[in-house]
User: Which sequence fits this backbone?
């Protein structure tokens, strides 16, 4: 293979990740706009319903065989935790400044590192623990407990990130045996009825432009998920993770244009610290993964040893 081919693949992965980031940013804006007239639970349901419609072409492309799996209990658990994370995250987007809600969502990889050590027995060495601690310093900068600007709503955003980290662990386990498209289709199929249950208690039909916002949230969310899974399949997490930071300026611009919000320096500083910690964690995980793959390859090449 020529040297140009890998470079082309890396650029494609970067473009897919950037597209995913922009779509997730636009999804957050659509959720915020829909939340002006609809309860968070309803916004979550409609995001999942229209997201399922956007994902159905996957089922048409692969056929019913895409649904064949031996991991259904794991899908069920992953989606139950995921819907709780979604409800908390959507509430944060609807009630906190957009940039702050998104900045706190960046803490998910920090919680995921802790969860990997606690639930999977993954060995996390001193440098990654130091990055986790630094990341949570960034979280404190964003949240600013004890400050006059502190909001209890930031704890809801952190709960969403914590639950999302458990989902990330589940996806990591599922991805070992399940294709990305099966994970996407099962997630959307299960999330629709799961999110309908809480939405039913506060139900009211969207009116006027609110329909556009809930449709957009579903399409942008599913589109972002599809691009994200494909980007990670092509490129390294350590190289792609920093691109996710582009979501912050996207939502900050829309927050300023549509809602008169300003991006305060503490949110920006805290987000930068969290992102730096995440980038280092992703880099270390990529280095360790390459080392493990190299060791396995060497061992396979010398079966007699």
Assistant:
């Amino acid at each position: 293979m020529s040297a140009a081919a890998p470079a082309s693949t890396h650029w494609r992965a970067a473009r897919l990740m950037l597209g995913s980031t922009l779509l997730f940013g636009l999804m957050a804006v659509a959720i915020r706009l829909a939340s002006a007239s609809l309860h968070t639970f309803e916004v979550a349901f409609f995001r999942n319903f229209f997201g399922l419609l956007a994902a159905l072409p996957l089922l048409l492309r692969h056929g019913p065989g895409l649904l064949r799996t031996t991991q259904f209990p794991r899908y069920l658990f992953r989606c139950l935790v995921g819907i709780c994370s979604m409800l908390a995250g959507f509430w944060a987007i609807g009630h906190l400044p957009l940039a702050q809600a998104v900045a706190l969502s960046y803490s998910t990889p920090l919680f995921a590192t802790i969860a990997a050590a606690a639930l999977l027995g993954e060995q996390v060495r001193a440098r990654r623990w130091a990055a986790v601690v630094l990341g949570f310093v960034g979280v404190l900068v964003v949240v600013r407990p004890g400050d006059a600007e502190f909001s209890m709503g930031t704890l809801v955003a952190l709960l969403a990130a914590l639950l999302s980290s458990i989902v990330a662990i589940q996806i990591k386990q599922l991805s070992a045996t399940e294709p990305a498209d099966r994970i996407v289709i099962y997630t959307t199929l299960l999330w629709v009825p799961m999110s309908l249950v809480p939405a039913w208690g506060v139900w009211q039909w969207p009116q006027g432009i609110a329909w556009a916002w809930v449709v957009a949230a579903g399409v942008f969310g599913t589109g972002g998920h599809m691009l994200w899974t494909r980007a990670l399949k092509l490129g390294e997490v350590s190289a792609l993770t920093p691109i996710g930071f582009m979501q912050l300026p996207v939502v900050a611009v829309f927050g300023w244009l549509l809602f008169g919000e300003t991006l305060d320096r503490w949110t920006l500083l805290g987000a930068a610290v969290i992102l730096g910690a995440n980038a280092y964690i992703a880099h270390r995980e990529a280095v360790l993964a390459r080392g493990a793959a190299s060791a396995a390859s060497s061992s396979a090449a010398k079966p007699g040893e």
